[in-house]
Known about the structure:
With 232 residues, the chain is mainly α. Helix content is 73%, strand content 0%. The radius of gyration is 20 Å and the shape is globular. The model is unreliable at 1-10, 101-112, 206-214, 216-222 and 224-232 (pLDDT under 50).
Amino acid sequence: MAEEQPREIDQIDIISLVKQEHDVARTLLEEFKDASKDIPTQQQLCWEIIRVMSQHAAKEEEVLYPALEKIIGESRVQTCLQEHLEVKHMLKDLDEMRLDQSNLEKGRALAVKSVESTITGAYCTFLKLQTFLAHAAHEEAQELPRLTELDEKVQQDLSTKWQEVTLRAPTRPHPEAPQKPPQAVEAHKALAPADAAAGAQQLHRKRWPIQSRYDIMFMMKRDALSDVPHDV
């Protein structure tokens, strides 16, 4: 039996992890646009957009930006944090909207008008969230490549920490929370349990399993990149 060789890659690199989450958010925004006035689907997509973007912002603030600040400087990182804050306010607006199919089914003019107004509001918020796409594109073109200037061990540590923070990151927008460690870390830890409870309530509203669909897609990408065969 050949001697077992060490795995060359044990995890996805930090740049790929960040880009994967950008891709998931892009897909969700595109599906929201395509859903038009399909109210149940729009509501489910709203919840998932909120979850994905809120988690992503927390991870960037805890892991990515402190590392980048040493390379690109505090001023540029502060710009990134300001863009995060704008997105969080938009996500909070989206989180406070509730699209309810039952109102349409009742057929009452007032209720129908109310729901149509809410759909319009949600779509306007979605259009504003397109600023996230510009933020992500700039980050991928300008900031993320600079991470390669860091020592390889530092990059591996960032990847490990990113995946660890995933398990406890808040899943709802909190624009009032601190954005820089160590205060951000403590705030995120304190906010995450209530976010998880709110998410559990949403899962009982007969929503189709979009959360599982995107989590599985992410894990498949992760495994495909990290599964390097070795002889046994």
